[in-house]
Amino acid sequence: DRHGPDAFAMYVSASEYIEEYYVYNKFVKGCLGTNNLESSARLCWASGVVGLVQAFGADSPPCAYEDFDFADLFFVAGYNLAASKPVIFRRMIAAKARTGAPLIVVDPRRTDTAARADLHLAIRPGTDVALHNAIAHVLTQEGLVDEAEAQGLTENFDALKAHVADFTPQRAAQITDIPAEQIVDVARRVGRAQAGLFMWGQGLNQSSIGTRKVTTLLNLVFITGNLGKKGAGPMAITGQGSAMGLRKVGALPHLLPGFRTVADAQARADVAGVWGVDPARISPDNGKPINMILESIDRGEIKALWIIHSNPAATFPDSSWVRSVLPKTELLIVQDCYHPTETTRFADILLPGAQWAEKGGTLTNSERGLNLIERAVPPPGEARPDLDIVMGVARRMGFTAEFPYRGTEAIFEEYKTLTADRPSDIRGVTYARLREDKGIQWPVPTADHPGTQRRFMDRQLPRGKVRLSLTEHQEPGEGVDAEYPLVLITGLVAMQYHSRTRTGKIEALRRAMPEPFVELHPDDAEAARVQDGQWALVSSRRGTVRARAKVSATIRPGAVFMPYHFGESSGDRAAVNALTHRAFDESANQPEYKACAVKVVGD
Ligand SMILES: Nc1nc2c(c(=O)[nH]1)N[C@H]1C(S)=C(S)[C@@H](COP(=O)(O)OP(=O)(O)OC[C@H]3O[C@@H](n4cnc5c(=O)[nH]c(N)nc54)[C@H](O)[C@@H]3O)O[C@H]1N2
Ligand SMILES: Nc1nc2c(c(=O)[nH]1)N[C@H]1C(S)=C(S)[C@@H](COP(=O)(O)OP(=O)(O)OC[C@H]3O[C@@H](n4cnc5c(=O)[nH]c(N)nc54)[C@H](O)[C@@H]3O)O[C@H]1N2
Ligand SMILES: [Mo]
Question: pLDDT-based confidence at 361, cuts 50/70/90?
Fold first, then answer.
């Protein structure tokens, strides 16, 4: 009442049920009247999704998991599937053993994924755009592309050809540190493949040019015609379990349910009609991404923040800064299953949310498949499902008519009406059907529709044709210098999950990965006078962290790797994000977690 709707923001995760997102969206956008509903998908897949939208005109993944069985080439860029998606990784390796499809992995580190590759390109961090442009150069110069097909599928093939004409493998070799012959070899393999499956992860997304990295990879997919056939396409497998559901429901600052946008007056009217709210309530202005929400709090503009299912004091970059910002809120509500976490410590009000198995709802996976999760155990103590907590507050604020639901099925049924004739149409799905048709893939417009295994088999695309990306390489936001000579890559390990509020409590996992480590090349270890197994101090311009040295030639000289699972509650000077910097993707605002300048010394 005092500061207006935009003085409020809600920050949620990309791991929640569709019904939860639907309730948050209705409450924040339809009742409170602000679009400041943001999620940790920003930290996770924002560049990947914006890249798909730029190329396709829509965020609409075409592939099916079954495509692993039909592919004759796997191209994996900046993605450590062996650790991050072990089930899918095993499926890919099994398919490869049957079909002999080669695996190409682009990663500065020899990860467990790269160790299984037929060809591992140990790229200099941050330089993928140069690699992709050089591959496009070879493909177009050596006649490895069916030009008529490429012209038919894309709107600017000639412009791309001209753009990469001078971009020789020799030039790219200087930028990427990948030998020119290897680039040519990869390009020929990509050009010869009948059905190439292209996958990428945070090595592309988490960069100040993340969207460019993604769109230049998509160039390769589309000029080689890897769309509209089995085994081919951009296989965008997101990080968290509900990133796709989140987008469909529109729980992001610029979206409304059914892939509608807040800027579209007709969309606001349609959604307000179903929500039973005044269309004038829904703001036409995009809400803020999380980096801007935090900056806004810092400036005293946003006064109240409600965090659900997220731990930004551990997982956002430059965490010392985050910890200086959170206390500036007049009201900070945090809803988590555990306390203390790095973030709950700052809460004015702490609300106990139930975890996934203690509540129910639906999830959508990366092949658009829907699954119903039913409650397995009751929530402990005073914990309640997150959407019950939010609806309870909403009702006490007077929004009783808007939240009449008893149980999640009624919420699902209301959401469905907003998918009518939208790409994500699921009017043919009910909870009862989901108990039988597990993983049915949208669109499913009617009850007798079998679901849609693959999309765009007819190559009819939302915008007609694909827009190819004509972009150049640019160095990361923070360069190395004499004082901070090493590039820090942060990423995950198989034994831990995110900020460890859960996996850190499982004894076997804790024992397997008890403390932060820093992986560095023997040459860099020698220069730093650090030996394998010793404690080292890793410093950036923002802070210092203590980690166990792991000296190994699996990482390129000049780069060091640290897992990001450790926050300050893991111990004094354990918070890895105290090192990382606040540089964000130019189009998608995703943080650049994979390239800041550090030095390492023995402790
Ligand atoms: N065990 C476990 N599994 C998880 C998670 C977890 O915390 N633990 N988190 C889940 C989530 S939310 C996500 S988003 C996914 C993330 O899964 P991944 O994307 O596989 O994970 P990362 O380790 O962040 O990054 C992948 C790789 O990018 C490489 N890389 C760094 N810089 C560059 C570069 O400039 N170019 C290229 N080509 N590669 C580069 C890194 O060396 C790293 O091996 O995992 C999911 N699965
Ligand atoms: N340096 C660096 N930082 C990174 C990354 C990196 O590669 N490097 N990766 C980024 C990526 S890809 C991601 S996805 C983010 C993840 O960032 P976050 O989402 O902030 O990480 P989590 O640790 O999963 O935090 C989830 C919180 O929600 C709680 N929780 C779990 N289930 C529930 C529930 O059902 N209800 C409620 N209310 N709470 C629940 C957990 O206890 C935990 O505190 O981290 C990012 N941070
Ligand atoms: Mo993620």
Answer: very high
Q: Which of 132, 143, 222 is closest to 186 using CA atoms?
A: 132
**What is the distance in A from the centroid of ligand 2 to the CA of 304?**
21
- Max distance between CA atoms of the chain, in angstroms, equals 68
pTM reported for the whole predicted model? 0.98
pLDDT of 341 strictly over 90: yes
Distance from Cα 22 to the centre of ligand 3, integer Å: 21
Least confident of 55-59, 496-500, 532-536: 55-59
Residue 593 Cβ inside 6 Å of ligand 2? The answer reads: yes
Is residue 47 within 8 A of residue 585, CB to CB? The reply is yes
Q: Which atom of ligand 2 is nearest to the CA of 359?
A: 35
Nearest CA to ligand 2 atom 30: 309
Quote the CA–CA distance of 448 and 492 in Å, as a whole number: 42
Average pLDDT rounded to a whole number, residues 29-47: 97
Collapsed DSSP state (helix, strand, coil) of residue 559: strand
Beta bridge partners of 77: 106, 200
- Predicted local confidence at residue 61, as pLDDT: 82
pLDDT digits (tens, 9 = 90+) for 439-470: 999 999 999 999 999 999 999 998 899 999 99
pLDDT digits (tens, 9 = 90+) for 250-307: 999 999 999 999 999 999 999 999 999 999 999 999 999 999 999 999 999 999 999 9
Contact yes or no for 556/263 (Cβ under 8 A): no
**Which ligand is the nearest neighbour of the Cα of 12?**
2
CA 575 / ligand 2 centre spacing (Å): 14
Nearest residue (CA) to ligand 2, atom 19: 310
491 lines ligand 1 (CB under 6 A): yes
Q: Degrees (nearest 5) of the Cα angle 246, 291, 26?
A: 35
CA distance 213 to 207: 8
Asked whether 424 lines ligand 2 (CB < 6 A), one says: no
